Amino acid sequence: MPLIEFTDKGLYCRAGDFYIDPWRPVDKAVITHAHSDHARWGNKYYLCHHDTRPILQQRLGPNTYQDIAWNEPVYMNGVRITLFPAGHIIGSSQVRIESNGEIWVVSGDYKIENDGISGQFEPVKCHSFITESTFGLPIYNWKPQTEIYTDVQNWIRKNQEVSKTSVLIAYSLGKAQRLLHPIAEVTDKIFVHGAVYNIHMALVNAGWKLPAVQRVTPETSKEELKGAVVIAPSSAEGSPWLRRFAPYEIGICSGWMQVRGNARRKNADAGFALSDHADWNGLLQACRETEAECIYATHGFQAVFTRYLNEHGINAKEVKTEYGDDELEPAELKLEED
Questions:
Q1: pLDDT tens digit string along 179-230?
Q2: How far apart (Å, rounded) are the C-alpha atoms in residues 45 and 54?
Q3: Are residues 47 and 108 in the same domain?
Q4: Residue 305 belongs to what domain range?
Q5: 329, 338, 334, 188: which is closest to 252 by C-alpha?
Q6: For residue 159, is it left (φ>0), alpha (ψ between -120 and 50) or beta?
Q7: How many separate domains does the chain show?
Q8: Domain contains 330
Q9: Mean pLDDT for the stretch of residues 115-143
Q10: Per residue in 104-116, pLDDT tens?
């Protein structure tokens, strides 16, 4: 029996009697990170990283939570569980489980480049490695983060010159926090959608030092918004909520902007290929550095990715899960209409 089984409720460790990022309610859930496709409501117990707990509390409300640090082992029924940085978003972790000399690592979502707030991805040697493959095609090859930030800053400055509001479409948990520091170098007029504000305040109240933001409300004046920056979730695209910012330009921050024409198809003025996921080379690097005997690829271009690994001497299998694309905002985040 493998240490992790792929079941209709999620990734199950029978020896420890717990699930990792289950998509159905279970008694014991080990959570890699707080995005809604990996951390769902209804579990009786949640184990997560210290920095993930306040976000789960904000999103899921009162529950039984246990939080631990990276590289701080805990045991369930004799199975050793240790969290390591995944570099995806604040608090995101890889889950290493060990029993009777067998080691598996569940990566959750991850990226290789250190973004300055999410922790540096740390390859963990194991026998079996479960990896995402959201951007598992060779076309996805990210520019260095500093270059993308410079592009965003120059775009904001261009809009400021003509008193336009710069509306950045970015996931409320992850990219919204990453963008704050480079934006703050250009302006202190940073406004955010309510969904972004809720996450922001949960982190600030937990002790995170983030640049100050203002929540967009019906009382926010046109004068305040001239030349300002607004961060909003993808659900704001094409919505009446945007009308208050006119004149404005829209810039979408997403790995999908790597494909030429995607910004135009979304009627955006600019596209920035900023992703919280590993690109093609990052995925390959992570898989190689684990030295795993078997790679299990899930959510994304897993068929292409596993075929490439097998053709290059790395044993890989495709696995179906219910994890989604966190480059899109979950339905639970409703727009605030006038």
A1: 999 999 999 999 999 999 999 999 999 999 999 999 999 999 989 999 999 9
A2: 15
A3: yes
A4: 5-138+276-318
A5: 329
A6: alpha
A7: 2
A8: no
A9: 97
A10: 999 999 999 999 9
